Amino acid sequence: xxxxxxxxxxxxxxxxxxxxxxxxxxxxxxxxxxxxxxxxxxxxxxxxxxxxxxxxxxxxxxxxxxxxxxxxxxxxxxxxxxxxxxxxxxxxxxxxxxxxxxxxxxxxxxxxxxxxxxxxxxxxxxxxxxxxxxxxxxxxxxxxxxxxxxxxxxxxxxxxxxxxxxxxxxxxxxxxxxxxxxxxxxxxxxxxxxx
Amino acid sequence: xxxxxxxxxxxxxxxxxxxxxxxxxxxxxxxxxxxxxxxxxxxxxxxxxxxxxxxxxxxxxxxxxxxxxxxxxxxxxxxxxxxxxxxxxxxxxxxxxxxxxxxxxxxxxxxxxxxxxxxxxxxxxxxxxxxxxxxxxxxxxxxxxxxxxxxxxxxxxxxxxxxxxxxxxxxxxxxxxxxxxxxxxxxxxxxxxxxxxxxxxxxxxxxxxxxxxxxxxxxxx
Lengths: 195, 221
Prior knowledge:
Chain A is an all-alpha fold. Chain A contains nine helices and no strands.
């Protein structure tokens, strides 16, 4: 069994224990997921206090629903699915605080400085800024793929959308980041050994 | 699978979550395809950048977990209370149970049930009549019951200050040979009776002038 499968099996066992009222198991799951949930949620809410509330709402839901968890999806997919639902409920009626990369005025200034930016750390910093300016739909697909390590069928399950939509969103997100990557020289050897 | 389709799979090739068959197709496409390899390099850089942000933030907040436990305990207590309330029989259920236990209600014939219910209704109606207020509700007598007429003479209603002593009140009445017929009512008014043949006007004037008298009214026959 590989490491990822071991983690999943461990989490499934915790969830079953939680279903029987085991608070120690809840603590273990909380330790593993609270930060991940927070990170997932804060990207959509941009409000730390509310995001913390949502984290606990999600874990409360986990506590209540653990007994009915059937393992049809991985614990991670299940938990992030709850997190997304809770977050959308929390921000319902409010316009999410996002702006398309093309519309971001700061992007111009940063691109102008790129000639002086050479270290990989600086490039990553700029890329993170660029990621922050993606729309929610694009950013959450990026995060679920690269930070949470989900497959595209799992992401489709979390986001409640077709698999092709996930692929399309990722494709467009990359297209929006492409000018940045090219300007940073990431796509060539200038990036300091990226390729 | 088209080039576009294969390109779309690259992010999940990079994070290692593709199915075996898809992974093989992507690998075959990448081979001898420098442009695709360049795209993969971009994606790996993205992957690395996004992952690093997460590593910086990975700290569990104990205080938030404590809040969660507190919330769970509160909800569990509330749920237990609600359950207890739901399980407790209602007044009607308790009455029904009492009937069943006392009269073997389930085994009682229909005509007997009608008889019992009718008797119960009669008892309830009588009880209601007994506790219904009387017509003279506004006129309360400390000794209870309706006022008793002890003298057919002239009657007066008299009210005195609350700080007037019983001795002073008795002296006031004695001077006119008056007797208390009833009272005081809820307003503190006494009904008194003057002896037959009294000079009513004189008695009224004297009582009116008496210390502590605040109300005096002749009762019309």
